[in-house]
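Hey, I'm writing a tutorial for new members on how sequence and structure tokens pair up, and I'd like a real worked example in the thread rather than a made-up one. If someone can provide the structure for the chain below, I'll link this post from the tutorial.
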Amino acid sequence: MTNQPIIECVPNFSEGRNLQVIETITAEISKIDGVKLLDVDPGKATNRTVVTFVGHPEKVIIAAFQAIKKASEVIDMSHHSGEHPRMGATDVCPLIPIANISMEETAKYAEKLAKRVGEELNIPIYLYEAAAKTPERQNLATIRAGEYEGFEKKILDPNWKPDFGPATFNARSGQTAIGARDFLVAYNVNLNTTSVRRANSVAFDIREKGRVKRNGNPVTGDIVRDSNGDPVREPGMLKSVKAIGWYIEEYGLAQISMNLTNTKITNLHEAFEACRTSANNRGLRVTGSELVGLVPKNVLLNAGKYFLKKQERSLGIAESEIIKIAIKSLGLDELGAFDPQKKVIEYVMKNEDQKLIDMSLTAFANETASESPAPGGGSIAAYVGSLGASLSAMVDNLSAHKRGWDDQWETFSMLAEKGQTFKDLLLSKVDEDTEAFNKIMDAIRLPKNTQEEKTARNLAMNNATKNAIEVPLSVMRICNEAYDFSEETAKIGNPASISDVGVGVACLDTAVYGAYLNVRINCSGFNDEAFVVASMKEAEQLKKTSTNRREKILGIVESKL
């Protein structure tokens, strides 16, 4: 499954108030095997629902077609109104490459979906962004200009003939834009005003498109035009950002509504800060913000680290704590509860089977002590190693926060970040070791009645055994690398916590020796002699190095006690 192509689909349906209608549409998506519905985000004021689901491309476009079909049956655009620009019952349906698939391939799936919707449902379809056939149709805003009401005349213009479907106005379903694009973050920033005009002033300040340039008065002055007679624009503060201002009656405030089309160019916190700067300059105040739909984990991690740096606080803290800082700093919980488990795409997509590292300490100990052979020594070694890295990271965080050591916070922050990296790597090995054992058991259970079955079983056993040797070997390597930051912590860290570094180093060495024992027992009897010799040679050297590093660092620790 890991090599399977995965795409995301984020259709926007023009209904955000009638939950029964929304559930009727999303039920069509849930019916398709191999597709996972991640998020349903209705908005009353916009009268629009953003739906997010992922899966194999073929499955996703089937689910998208069924949802578009159902939307055309249950939404009548002739009665629709809302704050957000729209042109159809399914207003827009983008496909986004997530894993093991290119943008070009994703665009082909968008075209396949568009063709089917246009031909079978008689809905005018426009291809946009990476799927667009002409540069003029890449921009969604250009296609949607005039909105639903304007398309009765617009669609008759030969320049606006649909890519698929009839070139006639569909009064009930309107038109739909289907395309392929990069991951887009829909983000709204809240203002302490009810004025749409003032919110738009902020939006024009920050969006890439900026505002039309005028002579004299920036509001009433004559528009400056170029040699072709086209308006000259003053670019805004942020690249890859689209923005407008609007008033949300549900919240009783105005917002800057943004699409961040490339978070590698403009991240969430940069958009927030730009809005804050513009608002302050105009006598306004940003009070919080709102994410629509799901967001990649790194977007929030980058934001959290940005605000931690501003506070001169260590970045080497748990991922969950960094995200908590991002939520509070951006005010993402101002308008309602913000649950990262429901809003971060990686958390929503994670395997629902319970992992060992998700257990409580008591449950993990009980599982280890049970009659089951796994988790065993390999998983325990990895977990002990993660505790060793955690202890040194803790000392670095305490040192970064120590009164009178403010000028050293960045040094300790970098050390703590290394500790968090080692901790996370070793935690991943806890379940990986148990999975390696289970693969051996699965191979043992394979049939061996025919020569073909015997060959397949032997191959599976060989691969599983190599993996079972490689996992504890990787634990030994990680722990040995972790000694570097632990030694630095012992030398310069908070003396009041020096004993914690000592316990951490003892844990690292215990993890190395425990993993070494697992390498030995898994190599025992394995018939790939060259692999066994190389593995044991490396394991012996890693064990020896670990012992020496432990003794050296404990010497530093004891000299400071």
